[in-house]
Amino acid sequence: MHLRPAYALLVLALVLGACSTQKHYALRGRVLAKSTDQLTVNHEDIPGFMPAMTMSYGVKDAAGFEKVQAGDVITADLVADRKENPWLERLVITDTSGRETVHNTTADDLEPGAEIPDVELVNQDGKKIHLGGFKGKSVLITFIYTRCPFPTFCPLLSNEFASIHRELQKTPGDYKKTHLVSVSLDPKFDTPPVLRKYGLSYLRDDPAGFEHWDFVATAPADLKKLASAFGLTYFEKDNQITHSLRTVLLAPDGTVDKIWSGNQYRKQEILDSMREAAATP
C-alpha cells in the first residue's frame, strides 16, 4: 500500500504529535523582572493552563531575551512539558512604555544572613515603628495592598498570614517570640485607618491581634528600598498594582533567615521555620 506524499506527511505529523509531551499556549503579559536566565511575568489568563498570575519562566529565545526589559508588554509561546518546568519561546515585545515605571529588582543576592534597610514604617494605629524594633523575635514579612482585586494574590497572602497568626496564638511561647508584618505597596491609599479596617477583617474583628500582626505603610522612596532588599518587583497603573510575591522571615538578630516566592504557600513549613528561628539563642 502506497500513501500519497501529502497524506503520508499528515499521518507522520499526527503520529509525532501523539508522541509529544509538549503543549503550547499563547501568553501575554508585562515583564516585572529580568534575572540572569528568567523573566518574571504578570500575565493574563491562559485558557486551559492557568489563571492570570505572576510567574517566573526560563526563556529559550536568546535574541528575544536580550531585547526585553522590565516593564515591557510581551507575547510569547509558553511551552509546557511533563519533563521540565514551563518555558517561553518566540518572545515579541508589543509595548515598551512601562520601562520607566516598573521598579525592577532582583533577588539573586538575597541570602540568609543578609541585612535589610530599617526604614520607618507607620502602622494601622498611626504609630511609627521599625523592623529593628522586633529584634529578639522571628518576624514574617510580606507585601500586600488593600485594593488588590485578585483572590490568588494579596487576599491569599493575608488569609495565610491570618491562619499562621491563629496557629501561633495557640502556643503562648511561640506567640510571644514571633511577629507578622504586612507591608502595603499602596502607601498613598493605604492610610492607617484603611489598614486598620483591612487588618480587622483578617483578625476576626479582634484588635488585640494587632499586638502580634502589624499592617504598615512607608514613604514611596523607602518602599522602593525595602522592596529592592527583598527582591520584590511592583508596577502601578490605574490604581492597580501588579507585583511579584515575596515572603521573608527575619531571624531574631534582624537578618534574613528564609525566603519564599510566589503564591504556592506551605503554611506548616513556614510555621516550623518561625518556631525554629525564634528558638535560636
Characterise this structure.
The chain is an alpha+beta fold and 281 residues long. It folds into two domains: 22-95, Copper binding periplasmic protein CusF (OB fold (Dihydrolipoamide Acetyltransferase, E2P), Beta Barrel); 121-278, Glutaredoxin (3-Layer(aba) Sandwich). It contains seven helices and 14 strands. The chain has a seven-stranded mixed β-sheet. The longest helix is centred in the middle third of the chain and has 16 residues, at 154-169. It is globular and about 55 Å long. It starts with a helix and ends with a helix. Mean pLDDT is 85; it is low at 5-18.
Please give the structural blueprint.
Elements: H1 5-19, E1 22-34, E2 38-43, E3 53-59, H2 62-67, E4 73-81, E5 84-95, E6 121-123, E7 128-129, E8 138-144, H3 154-169, H4 172-176, E9 178-184, H5 192-202, E10 213-217, H6 220-229, E11 234-237, E12 240-243, E13 246-250, E14 256-261, H7 267-278
Parallel strand pairs: 3-5, 8-9, 9-10
Antiparallel strand pairs: 1-2, 1-4, 2-3, 4-5, 6-7, 6-10, 8-13, 11-12, 13-14
The N- and C-terminal alpha carbons lie at a distance of 80 Å
Our count of helices gives 7
Widest sheet, order of strands? 7-6-10-9-8-13-14
The CATH class label of the largest domain is: Alpha Beta
Number of strands: 14
Beta-strand percentage? 25-35%
The major sheet is characterized as: 7 strands, mixed
Radius of gyration (Å)? 22 Å
Low-confidence stretches at least 5 residues in length (pLDDT < 50)? Answer: 5-18
Question: What's the pLDDT, averaged over the residues?
Answer: 85
The number of domains is: 2
Question: What structural class do the secondary elements suggest?
Answer: alpha+beta
CATH-derived topology of the largest domain: Glutaredoxin
The CATH architecture of the largest domain can be given as 3-Layer(aba) Sandwich
Assembly classification = single chain
- The shape, in one word, is globular
Portion in helices: 25-40%
The succession of helices and strands, N to C, reads HEEEHEEEEEHHEHEHEEEEH
CATH H-level name of the largest domain... which superfamily?
A: Glutaredoxin
